[in-house]
Amino acid sequence: MADAAALPTDLLPDKFAAWFEARGWSPRAHQLDMVAKAREGRDALLIAPTGGGKTLAGFLPSLIELAERPPANAPRGIHTLYISPLKALAVDVERNLMAPILQMSLPIVAESRTGDTGISRRQRQRVKPPDILLTTPEQLALFCAWEGARLYFESLSCVILDEIHTLHGSKRGDLLALDLARLQQFAPNLRRVGLSATVDDPDVIRRWMGFGRAADTHEQVALVRGPAGAPPIVDMLLSEGKVPWAGHTAKHAMDEVYETIKQARTALVFVNTRFQAEFAFQELWRLNEDNLPIALHHGSLAAEQRRKVEAAMARGELRAVVCTSTLDLGIDWGDVDLVIQLASPKGASRMVQRIGRANHRLDEPSRALFVPANRFEMLECQAAREAIAENRFDGEPTRIGALDVLAQHVMGCACSEPFDLLAFYDEITSAGPYRDLAWEDYEQVVDFVSTGGYALKTYDRFRRIVKTLDGRWSVRNAETAQRHRLNVGAIVSPAMLAVRISMGRGRAGRKIGEVEEGMLEMLDPGDTFVFAGQVWALVAVTGTEVLVSPATNRDPKMPSWGGSKFALSTFLAKRVRELMYDQEHWQVLPADVREWLEIQRDHSLIPPADDLLLETFPRGKRHFMVVYPFEGRLAHTTLAMLLTRRLERLGGAPLGFVCNDYALAIWALKPMDGLDFDELFAQDMLGDDLEAWLAESFMMKRAFKGCAIISGLIERRFPGHEKSGRQVTFSTDLIYDVLRRHQPDHLLLRCARQDAATGLIDVARLGQLLERISGRIRHSPLEHLSPFSVPILLEIGKERSPGDAAEMILAEAEEDLIAEAMS
Amino acid sequence: MSAIAEPYAFAASPCGGLRTRLNGAAVTLRPSGALWIEAARMLVVADLHLEKGSSYAMRGQMLPPYDTRDTLRRLQAEVVAAAPESVVLLGDTFHDRSSEDRLARDDAEGLRALGGLTRLVWVIGNHDADGPRRLPGEVADEIAVEGLILRHEPTPGRQDGEVAGHLHPCARVVASRGSVRRRCFVTDGARMVVPAFGAYAGGLSVRDAAFLGLFARPPLCGALGAGRVHAVGWRSVAGE
Lengths: 823, 240
Hints:
Chain A is α/β, with parallel strands linked by helices. Chain A is globular. Chain B is globular and about 50 Å long. Chain B is an alpha/beta fold. Chain B has one domain (17-238): Purple Acid Phosphatase, chain A, domain 2. The longest helix of chain B is centred in the N-terminal third of the chain and has 16 residues, at 67-82. The chains are: A alpha/beta, B alpha/beta.
C-alpha cells in the first residue's frame, strides 16, 4: 500500500480537495495513487476490497481531467468509457457518479447505455456522445462493428474495466480484449484502468489487460493496492445433530436461517441455482410469521420484477433477498449487514465477493454465515472459512483466446471499416489472450469468416467479406453488416421460453418470467413446479411460450433438483481433503459430522490428501466401486464414462454409474475387487478413449452450437425460422453430424472440442487428477457400504424421479443405508 | 373392409425396418427414412432439400456445403441395398428453384448415375414446382400405385391410400429414462406421412396442429433409430 504522505499533495485540484473535506473524508492513498498513475499516462490495475472507494478511485483521474479542460465550441467525443460485466452495475455506477458531479457542479455528462436503454437515448448518444459512457462488453462490441467507430472513439482517453476479475477468463473477456485492442488503434494514447476485488494472482489480469506483444506486458500495467480492510467474520451454522447426509436445499436449517434474518438489519441470502433460490424463498415464507419483507432475485425473473426488487432494496425496504449470482457483483447497497450462503460456495474467491456485499465500510468487518446443506458441504464450508481467514484464494490458469470469438471480431471490424490483413494481425496479437495467435490460425479464421472455411470451395461467390481493390477486406454489403450486428456478443444462453399465465384455450396472459428450455424436459402438463416464488401447474408449451396456471398444491412436484453448477475449485478441494485427513482438525466440526468421519476412518479409511480412496463393496445383488476425487461433477462424469468403457473391455460388465461433486460410484453384477486399479486409472485413458467418446457425446453438440452461434456460422435466430430454440438445437446437431463426416478437421470442430474439453467435461482437471493419484490409489475392500458412500448412493435414481412417491422411497432407502453404514 | 378397423400390425424386417400394410399394400418403413412398396419394387423418399446449405450461404450463412453429398450418398446406399425398379422423389427434392444450378459437379454426376441405375420419378413439391431442368427422370404431380396415391403435400380430411411428405414429421418419444426426438413415419394404416430424407431438413412435431385431422384414429409413429425403425404408440409421443 502506498503511503499517502509520500505522494505529491498537489494531486487533487482545490475543488476536489474541498469536496472531500466537505464530506468529512480524506482521500485514500490508493485514490491519490491512481491520480498519480494517470498523470504519468500509465495503465493501472487497482486491487481493493469492496467498500474501499474503488469506483471513485477509478473515475477520479477522469473527473479531474474533465473538470480542468477548457470549454469547447464544438461537441467532443467520449473521454472515458466504463465497462461493467452487469447491466445493473453500469446503471448503479452512473447513479453514484452523479453525486460528485452534482456536488462539485462539474461540467460533465455521464450516461449509461445497455441493452435496456431506450432507442431515442441511444440515438442521441451516437450523435452527441456523453463525456463518460457507462456500458457493457456486448455494447462495446456493437460499437466496434459500427461504421464510423474510429471517429466516434478518436478522442477517447481512458477505459475503466470494473470487476475485471469476473471478465478476463472467459469468451466474454476474449472479445473485450480484442475490442480494447481496437480502441487502442483508434486512440493510441488510451489509458487502461482495471478495478478488481482481491485476487490470488494479479499478474494474470495485468497480462490480460496490457497492450502489446512483449513478454513483460504485465509490467507496463502499474499495480495499485487498496487497504486490506477488516477481515470478515464468517460463521458456520452447525445444526448439531441434524446435518443431512445428502441434498442441496439446506431445508433442515431453514428455521435457523429465518431466525438469523430476524436478527439482522438486511440480509442477502445467496444460493447457487435458481431452483435453490425458489426453494429457499418458499421455505422462508412458510416460516415468515412476522411477515418480514423477503424478496427473490434471480436471472429467470422478468426484468421488471428484478428492477422492483433492486429499487426496494436501495430504499432500504427489504429485510432479506434470496438471490443467485445475479447479485454477486458490486451493486452498492449500504444497508446489508449480513450475507448468508446456503449450500457450499464452491470457491473461496466467489465467497469473498459475496461476503463483500455486506457492509460497504472498510473499518467494520463484513459478516457472513455459511449454511452447509450436507456433510461434505460442511467440510467444504469449513475449508472455505479457513482459506478466507488466511486470505488465500483460488488461482486461475491463463487463458488462450478462442477462435470462434476471433471470427466474430473479424467480421465486426470488417463491418466497421476495411482492414489490412497484416496490420490487423498486429492489432489482434496486441490483445492479451491472442498474444500467441499463430498466423496460420489467423488466416484460417479470416477464410472462415469469408466463405465458411471449407475444403469444398463452392461458396467463393457468396463471400461475407471481400477483398477491395486496394487489397483490404471489407464486408460484402450493408445487409450482411446489419445482420452481423444483430448477432454480436460472446454469451450464448440456453434457449429461453417465456412463462405466461394461461388465459384458457391456449391464450397467453401476463408474462411472469423466463425459463431454460431444459427445465421443461422433466415436466409434463399438469405437473407442478415453483417459479417466481409461487407454485404453478404446467398447462402447455406452445412454440416459445410456457403456459401455466396457479396451483393450489403446496407440494410442488419439482421444488428443486440437482446440485451446484459450479465445481469445487481445485484449491478448495485440496483443503477439504487435508481437513478430512487431519484428525486434530475435526474438533471444529459438529458431533454428528465428527462421528461420521470417525466411523469412516474405523470401518474403511481416510487417505492422506494426495491419495485417492477407492472402496469396493457388495450391496443387494450388485457390486459397487466408489472413488472420492473431489474434483467436481463434470470431471467425475467424464471419468466415470471413461472408466465404464474400460471396465467393459476388461469384462467387468458395468451396469451404471452416478456422480456428484465429491465422488463417483460404478456398479456391476460381478465383484470388482480383483482389478488392477492402477491400470484402470492409467493416464492413457485421456487418449483414444476420450476422443472416441467425445465425438459422439451430446456435449460436443452443445459446444458446437455455442461456437456456431458466436462465430456467426448460424444466427441467433435463423432467418425465416420463427420457431423456438428447439428447432435451432435440431439444426445445429444436423450441421455437426454432416460437418464431422465430411471435414472432421474444420475450425469450428476444433473450437467445439476445445470448449467441451475445458468447460463441459473438464479434461484438464481430470488430467491433473490422474497424474496426482498415479500409484497412490488406496483400495479399501469392504463387507458393506461406508459412511462416505451414503451420499453418492442416495444420488442413484434421484435425478430422474423428482416426484413425491420417489421422495418417500428415497427417504426409506436413506434410513436403511445409514443404519447399515454406521453399524 | 376398412383398414381403419384393424389393429396395427407390424413385423420386423431383416433390414431393421418395419413391415406393415398401408391401405392393403405391403410396405416396409426403412431405417433410412425411405418407404419401400414391395409389389411395385418402388422406393419413396421425401423432402431431400438438396442445396439447402448453399441456399443459406447465398444469404451469408456459410453452412457446411456437404448436405447434398451426404443426402445423395445415403440415397445411393438405399438404391444399392434395395435394387428398386423406380425411385420416387416425393417433392421438395431441391430446396429452392435455383438449387439445380448450384449443384457441385460431383453431386450432379451422382444424381445422373442414379438415373442410370433406376427409374427416377420427380414428384413436384412447393419448393421445386418446376421439376428438374437438366437431370434425368420423369416429372409427375402424383403417382397411383398398388392402391396408393403418392403426392407431396397431404390432403386434409380422410384420404385412404395417400402417401405424402412435406410435413417433415418428428416425434419426441418419452420413456421413463428421458426423451429423444427423432424423425418418423406417421400412419393410421390407411394413409401415411413419410419423414424428410435431406441432411439439413428440420422436423415438425407430429403433435403439431398441421397433423390434426389427417388421421382417423391416433396414428402410430415409426421412429428412426440407429439401424432400426421403432414402432411407437401415440401415447408415448409428447408435445414439444
